[in-house]
Design goal:
The complex is a heterodimer of chains A (260) and B (306).
Chain A lengths: L3 E5 L6 H13 L2 E6 L14 H4 L5 E3 L3 H7 L12 H16 L3 H8 L5 E5 L2 E5 L18 H11 L3 E4 L6 E4 L5 E4 L14 E7 L4 E7 L3 H10 L4 H9 L11 H6 L3
Parallel strand pairs in A: 1-2, 2-3, 5-6, 6-8
Antiparallel strand pairs in A: 1-9, 4-5, 7-8, 9-10
Chain B lengths: L1 H17 L6 E2 L6 E5 L28 H13 L4 E5 L9 H9 L4 E5 L6 H13 L4 E6 L5 H8 L3 H14 L5 E5 L8 H13 L6 E5 L6 H5 L18 H4 L5 E5 L2 E3 L23 E2 L3 H9 L6
Helix pairs in contact in B: 2-3, 4-6
The chains are: A alpha/beta (260), B alpha/beta (306).
């Protein structure tokens, strides 16, 4: 009898993929859910995700950079874009999320922890948002040498690490036998031309990690985004699976997958 | 006019008051970025804004040998380096550039800063294949300083505009999307409208996913003679750094290796006092932010990273 847990990140206000995730992973046997942060941004009706996350005894949520900004009522998401077009769309998304997240939910985001630690199957497990050393560090597959990941593992005293923040999932077995897992996000597809989103299941008895792709009612989400007047550029991403904004952060290899 | 004079007076007074204060010390966090001056100060162009006076006759820093590059890469890899940058001079002048690229990509992602002019069809095809097959990222950063020949050539030299744009297009057509890097000597290029002009130029040449990076000029090297050098007030003292800035300043996590030794950053290689020692290990110590160019990084939030 395996002991499964679900690890995911980047909800981005997508209550529909969150509901689908909980249903699917529970049916597969997951008994606990770990969210690596970035609850808000991008999608519609921010307050709809909180009932799935708050006061649930088997759901554990960490603070991402977006949650830090919303929780502390900052002026922007602190994503650090320099391209004016990227900043324009990031600000629309941020202002909308800030205006439509209740004070009570903001206070809850403000108090979230920034890492989780466990020991599973004799491995020291660390979960963080961007990287163990910086909440807003992007760890892209093409930009992370083995030696750098070994350094992060050693500094953080971990054998198995889970992170998110970039929006594109990957798994790397390192020469030392340690494992880095970017769980991706459930809020929007990973710029690959599908409408699916990403999460992982972990068997805590063996530390076996299984990446999974999740289908959800993305058409209904798109309609809901239009109903609240979110930009058509965001809707396009949900419907086509390609990112249309905030592209400047993508390294060459990851960008080459998409169309914009 | 009157208010400008008052401001200048204030700055002069401030400079005098701060003249005896020590420069801030910046700790070294970790070697995230390793810069390699692979072709030293030798370049096929002699751009007017070059902060290290590179050109066809400047061999104050010579080419690095393949062994020197390999040694620095292996020392960096042992420290857990995150990414490597080749610069010069013009990196594609190096006779062994392909070997240097291949050996680096075995251990880390690589960005190459180039003017593009030497990237002919065969090289563009090879770079495209290398990009597609390498495990880690390969970025080519091509410098362009205007959206017209008149604007660019005034900085980078006569007839360079079409050669540079030609290289950008060749790279794109070979499957490697270059990062077009603009130094904002023309002030009007720094704002949103300036960016849009570059995007329009690249799209008009068939590049549907334009990638851009904008950099402020550093007022040293040849740029000091083109425009003006630093003023006395443009200097950092203890207490100037704002909270969290240590992480943003690239020199807390980068070092530059040239044929002549190790330096804190890519900007200061012609500053003899900035030399830290012979090998990368000699550079893994705190530095003093005592050069006026440090002021530009502080004020502009500049990072040389892609």
């Amino acid at each position: 009898m395996s002991n499964l847990i679900c690890v995911f990140g980047g909800i981005y206000n997508n209550h529909r993929s969150l509901a689908a995730l909980i249903e699917e992973a529970s049916a597969l046997g997951a008994t606990a859910f770990y969210c690596l942060g970035d609850v808000g941004g991008f999608g519609p009706n921010p307050d709809k995700v909180f009932p799935y996350l708050r006061d649930q005894k088997n759901v554990f949520v960490m603070q991402g950079n977006y949650d830090h900004s919303i929780g502390n009522r900052l002026e922007d998401c602190a994503c650090g874009y320099v391209d004016p077009r990227d900043n324009h769309f990031a600000q629309i998304s941020y202002d909308y999320t800030l205006a439509n997240t209740s004070d009570d939910n903001k206070d809850w985001l403000q108090e979230l922890p920034t890492e989780f630690r466990h020991e599973w199957a004799g491995k020291k497990v660390l979960m963080a948002h961007g990287s163990p050393r910086r909440i807003n560090e992007f760890l892209w597959e093409s930009q992370c040498p083995d030696g750098f990941l070994e350094y992060l593992m050693n500094e953080a005293d971990a054998d198995l690490m889970f992170i998110t923040h970039t929006g594109i999932p990957w798994v790397r077995e390192l020469p030392s036998g340690k494992t880095m897992v970017n769980v991706g996000v459930i809020g929007r597809p990973p710029n690959d031309g599908t409408t699916l989103v990403d999460y992982v299941l972990v068997d805590t008895d063996t530390a076996q990690v299984t990446p999974r792709r999740l289908a959800y009612d993305h058409v209904a989400l798109a309609q809901e985004m239009r109903d609240v007047d979110l930009p058509e550029e965001f809707v396009e991403t949900v419907l086509t699976g390609y990112w249309t904004t905030c592209l400047e952060i993508l390294p060459g290899k990851e960008r080459a997958i998409g169309t914009y | 006019m009157a208010s400008n004079l008052i401001n200048l007076d204030m700055l002069v007074t401030r400079a005098q008051e701060r003249a005896d204060l020590p420069a801030p010390t910046l700790d070294f966090e970790h070697l995230d970025v390793l810069w390699l001056q692979v072709t030293g100060t030798l370049c096929n162009l002699a751009c007017l804004h070059c902060f290290i006076s590179c050109g066809p006759k400047n061999d104050s820093h010579p080419f690095m040998t393949v062994d020197q590059v390999a040694t620095a890469i292996s020392e960096g890899a042992a420290m857990g380096v995150k990414e490597v940058y080749f610069t010069g001079g013009e990196p594609f002048l190096h006779p062994d550039i392909r070997e240097l690229i291949e050996r680096t990509l075995e251990v880390a992602p690589l960005s190459i800063l180039t003017n593009g002019i030497l990237i002919e069809d065969e090289m563009a095809a090879w770079l495209g294949e290398t990009f597609a097959s390498s495990r880690y990222g390969l970025d080519i950063r091509v410098s362009l300083d205007g959206t017209t020949a008149k604007e660019n050539d005034a900085i980078r030299g006569r007839n360079t505009f079409e050669q540079i744009v030609g290289a950008i297009v060749r790279l794109w057509e070979n499957g490697i999307n270059p990062v077009v890097t603009v130094t904002t000597c023309h002030n009007e290029l720094a704002d949103g409208a300036g960016r849009n002009r570059f995007i329009e130029l690249l799209k008009s040449r068939g590049i549907s996913q334009p990638r851009l990076k904008f950099l402020s000029p550093f007022k040293i090297g040849r740029e000091e003679r083109r425009d003006e050098g630093y003023q006395a007030y443009e200097r950092l003292v203890d207490g100037d750094l704002i909270e969290g800035e240590e992480n943003d300043l690239q020199c807390s996590s980068c070092r530059m290796v040239t044929a002549k030794g190790v330096f804190p950053c890519p900007i200061l290689i012609e500053v003899e006092e900035a030399r830290m020692g012979d090998t990368l290990a000699d550079g893994i110590v705190p530095i003093k932010l005592n050069h006026p160019a440090c002021y530009t990084c502080h004020v502009e939030g500049v990072t040389c990273r892609t």
